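Quick one:
INPUT:
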C-alpha cells in the first residue's frame, strides 16, 4: 500500500552485475534483502553507452558467482546487447529479488537503522540494518571547467551522450581524452569521414595481445589483477589511474596513438584553457607519451620475467617491443574553435558516481564515499561495491565483482550477526 514500510536486514541499490553478485551471495547466506533498480536490470549497459562498444575483457573472463560465459567465442568480446543478455540470464539464474523502475530518492540513518525511500513500488520505504550501494561508478560524465568556455557554435558532447558518428555534426571533432574511451571514439569518428584531433593527457598504453596471448591473460597470470588495495603504496593514485588503451574487437586489434595517427588523427597535448574561442594545450605531449611508452615496456618486462620463471617461453611466441609513440616535432599548442574546422568537442574525460540521494555524511571533499575496501567505516552497515580498485585491481571488471562481493557480504553477515539480525 502507498506509504507502507518494508523491513529487511539488507537493501542493495543497483541491479547491475555487482549488485546481482551481492544478491546471490546474500541469498546463499539466508539474508533477506531487496535489490532496487532505478531502471531495468543492467540499465547502464543497456542505455548509457555508445552503440558499438564492446567489453575490454575477453569473454572467458566474463564470470560472476556461480555463473560464467559458456558461448563458442571465449576469446571474443561481448557487444553491449550480449552483456545485457549475460546479466539478465544471471539475474534469472539467481532469482534475484529485484524491484525495477524503483529509483532511490534518499538514504538516511535513523535510530540505528537506514531508511531507504523510493519513488517506485507505490512510494515504498524500506527500513534496514545494512545497505549495499552497487549503483556503479559511471553515472555522470566528468568534464573539466574549460568546457563552459566553448564557443556557442561548437557542439559539446560527452561520451555518456555519444551514440554513433552520424549523430554528430559534419566537420572536425576534437576528442578530449586518450584513455580507452577516447581512443575508441576517435577511431570510430575518424573512420566516419570526420577529421579528428585528440587532446592527450595521462594514459596507459597496452597491447591487445602479447606473445600470442591476450594481455588480460598475462595480467591475470602474473597476479596483477589480484593485487589488493592494502598492498599498494599509493591507493588514491591507483584508484585514479586512467583506464588502459584497450579495445575489444573481433580482430583483437591494438588501438593506440600510433594506430590513430596512421589513420590521419591529429594529436595535441592536454587541454588547459579555452579563451576567446581558442583552445590551448599543454606542451608536455611528448613527455606524457614517453612516460606511457616506458610504463608499457616495464609491464612487458614483468610478463617476460614471469614467462621465463614459469617455464612458458617455449609455449608462447618470442618477446616483442613496440615502436615509441610518434609525436610531431612541434605539436600545436592552440586551436581556433571559431574558424569552422572544429564543429564538435567530445569529452572523453571520465565519469563519476551520483550520490545526490545519499543523506549520510560519508562523502569526502571530492564527493566520493570514504571507505575501506568498500566498508564505510563512518557509517556501520553501509557498503560500496563496483568502484575502480575497490579491493583489487580487477574490481571494475565484471569478473572482479565476485571476490569483492564475497568479501563485502562476509563483512555484512558478521555485522548483522553482531546485531543478532538476519530477518526482521
Amino acid at each position: 500500500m502507498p506509504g507502507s514500510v518494508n523491513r529487511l536486514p539488507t537493501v542493495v541499490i543497483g541491479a547491475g552485475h555487482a549488485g546481482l553478485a551481492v544478491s546471490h551471495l546474500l541469498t546463499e547466506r539466508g539474508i533477506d534483502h531487496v535489490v532496487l533498480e532505478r531502471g531495468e536490470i543492467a540499465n547502464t549497459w543497456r542505455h548509457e553507452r555508445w552503440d558499438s562498444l564492446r567489453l575490454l575483457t575477453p569473454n572467458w573472463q566474463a564470470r560472476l558467482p556461480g555463473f560464467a560465459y559458456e558461448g563458442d567465442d571465449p576469446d571474443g568480446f561481448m557487444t553491449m546487447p550480449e552483456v545485457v543478455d549475460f546479466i539478465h540470464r544471471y539475474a534469472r539464474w539467481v532469482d534475484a529479488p529485484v524491484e525495477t523502475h524503483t529509483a532511490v530518492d534518499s538514504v538516511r540513518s535513523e535510530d540505528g537503522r537506514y531508511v531507504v525511500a523510493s519513488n517506485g513500488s507505490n512510494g515504498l520505504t524500506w527500513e534496514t540494518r545494512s545497505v549495499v550501494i552497487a549503483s556503479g561508478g559511471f553515472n555522470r560524465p566528468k568534464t573539466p571547467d574549460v568546457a563552459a568556455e566553448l564557443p556557442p557554435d561548437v557542439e559539446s558532447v560527452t561520451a555518456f551522450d555519444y551514440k554513433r558518428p552520424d549523430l554528430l555534426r559534419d566537420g572536425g571533432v576534437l576528442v578530449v581524452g586518450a584513455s580507452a574511451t577516447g581512443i575508441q571514439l576517435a577511431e570510430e569518428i575518424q573512420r566516419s569521414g570526420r577529421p579528428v584531433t585528440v587532446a592527450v593527457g595521462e594514459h596507459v598504453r597496452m597491447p591487445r595481445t602479447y606473445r600470442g596471448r591476450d594481455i588480460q591473460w598475462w595480467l591475470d597470470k602474473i597476479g596483477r589483477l589480484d593485487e589488493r588495495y592494502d598492498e599498494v603504496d599509493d591507493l588514491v593514485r591507483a584508484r585514479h589511474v586512467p583506464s588502459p588503451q584497450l579495445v575489444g574487437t573481433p580482430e583483437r586489434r591494438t588501438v593506440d596513438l600510433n594506430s590513430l595517427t596512421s589513420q590521419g588523427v591529429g594529436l595535441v597535448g592536454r587541454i588547459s584553457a579555452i579563451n576567446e574561442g581558442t583552445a590551448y594545450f599543454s606542451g608536455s605531449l611528448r613527455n606524457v607519451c614517453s612516460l606511457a611508452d616506458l610504463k608499457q615496456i616495464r609491464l612487458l618486462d614483468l610478463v617476460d620475467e614471469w614467462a621465463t620463471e614459469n617455464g612458458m617461453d617455449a609455449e608462447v611466441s618470442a618477446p616483442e617491443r613496440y615502436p615509441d609513440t610518434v609525436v610531431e616535432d612541434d605539436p600545436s599548442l592552440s586551436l581556433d574553435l571559431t574558424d569552422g574546422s572544429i564543429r564538435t568537442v567530445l569529452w572523453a574525460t571520465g565519469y563519476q558516481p551520483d550520490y545526490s540521494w545519499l543523506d549520510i555524511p560519508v562523502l569526502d571533499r571530492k564527493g566520493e564515499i570514504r571507505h575501506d575496501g568498500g566498508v564505510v567505516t563512518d557509517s556501520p552497515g553501509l557498503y560500496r561495491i563496483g568502484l575502480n580498485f575497490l579491493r583489487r585491481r580487477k574490481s571494475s571488471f565484471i569478473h572482479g565483482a565476485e571476490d569483492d562481493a564475497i568479501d563485502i557480504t562476509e563483512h555484512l553477515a558478521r555485522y548483522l550477526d553482531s546485531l543478532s539480525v538476519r530477518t526482521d
